[in-house]
Specification:
The structure holds 2 protein chains of 2 kinds. By secondary structure, chain A is an all-alpha fold. Chain A has one domain: Cytochrome Bc1 Complex, Chain D, domain 2 (Orthogonal Bundle), CATH 1.10.760. Chain A has 6 helices and 2 strands, in the order ααααββαα. In chain A, helix 2 runs antiparallel to helix 6 (124-136) and helix 3 (50-58) packs across helix 6. Chain A is globular and about 40 Å long. By secondary structure, chain B is an all-alpha fold. Chain B is built from 5 helices and no strands. Chain B has helices at residues 3-39, 60-65, 80-88, 102-114, 133-138. Chain B has a domain at 60-114. The chains are: A mainly alpha, B mainly alpha.
């Protein structure tokens, strides 16, 4: 009997927890899975690579900036906007629990920042590689 | 609403009230300034003394979407026509892509236009606050040693908070200015 109450209690706590955090609609791994679904449709797709994501992140792609120009070489640290100097919260989910939990926000910033760095949108392969890299970063 | 959020909400309400008070104080100061300005070669237009820089009722979407890369520049810092131009060109926004979806864009444009400065006397509507006549007059070489603009802590004249510590709250009162060393 006691065990049942205990279990019900746990379920209640879990549900209440979900209800008070509407901002965390998805986990970074769920977001990675949906990028993977997109990438799987492209020819020659063989999975994501954190190493490739890291070099993509740190390299310039013909323009003035790399991703690291604002998010720094260590995405677990505070970043700084290369033009305005405004502080940017860390990008790695290990250092910032809000990262990669809101699909709309993730799409918005991939579109904007890829445009700034590559003058085009990023491919699902590139986005997945970057997120795979960010998920390997320990705080 | 969780306890934590409720508390935040209450703090926000208090902060907004306090802002209203400091803003009307700043307003009074501006009036004096304007009379001074008139005597010394013309008005300084652009800022709106009929309305505060930030209306009492701000817009959550504007606050959120326009504060990721810099402070959310208050609607009263530019006239309506300037805001329309800024909001129509967000995909090429001063060298970066700040595009929004159509619905967010519409809501934020309406907020900015409805609360824009209405004391504009420049023939064209500039995109930049820092290119307006009143900004240049308030920040010319009589007021500010030009070397300060090269200070790495300033970086850009658009970095209002480098010298106006309470810029984020719409407070540019000249008594609160702290120049970086």
């Amino acid at each position: 009997m006691f065990r049942i109450f205990y279990k019900l209690g746990l379920v209640f706590v879990a549900v209440a927890g979900l209800a008070t955090q509407p901002a965390f609609a998805e986990t970074p791994n769920e977001i990675l899975a949906s990028i993977q679904k997109e990438a799987a449709g492209t020819p020659g797709f063989k999975g994501f690579s954190a190493a490739r994501g890291e070099s993509f992140f740190k390299a310039k792609h013909g323009g003035e900036w790399s991703c690291a120009s604002c998010h720094t070489e260590n995405p677990a640290a505070l970043g700084k906007h290369a033009k305005t100097g405004k502080v940017i919260d860390p990008l790695a989910p290990s250092a910032n629990a809000e990262r990669f939990t809101n699909p709309k926000k993730v799409d918005k910033w991939f579109k904007r920042n890829c445009n700034d760095v590559l003058s085009r949108v990023c491919t699902p392969q590139e986005k997945g590689d970057v997120l795979a890299y960010l998920l390997t970063i320990k705080k | 609403m969780s306890m934590h959020k409720q508390k935040n909400f209450r703090m926000l309400a208090v902060a907004l009230l306090a802002m209203g008070v400091t803003m009307s104080a700043a307003q009074a100061d501006d009036d004096r300034d304007e009379r001074y300005g008139e005597k010394h070669g013309g008005k300084y237009g652009g800022e709106n003394r009929g309305k505060p820089l930030q209306p009492a009722q701000t817009n959550a979407k504007f606050q959120k979407e326009c504060s990721d890369c810099h402070i959310a520049y208050m609607p009263g810092l530019l006239p309506a026509e300037s805001w329309r131009k800024v909001m129509a060109g967000l995909d090429k926004h001063f060298g970066s892509d700040a595009s929004l979806d159509a619905q967010d864009n519409k809501e934020i444009t309406a907020f900015l236009v409805n609360n824009a400065s209405n004391r504009w006397n420049a023939p064209t509507a500039p995109l930049k606050i820092t290119e307006t006549a009143w900004f240049k007059r308030k920040h010319d070489s009589h007021e500010i040693n030009p070397a300060i603009w090269k200070n790495p802590q300033v970086k850009s004249p658009a970095n209002c908070a480098a010298c106006h510590p309470r810029a984020e709250r719409g407070d540019f009162n000249e008594h609160d200015i702290r120049m970086p060393k």
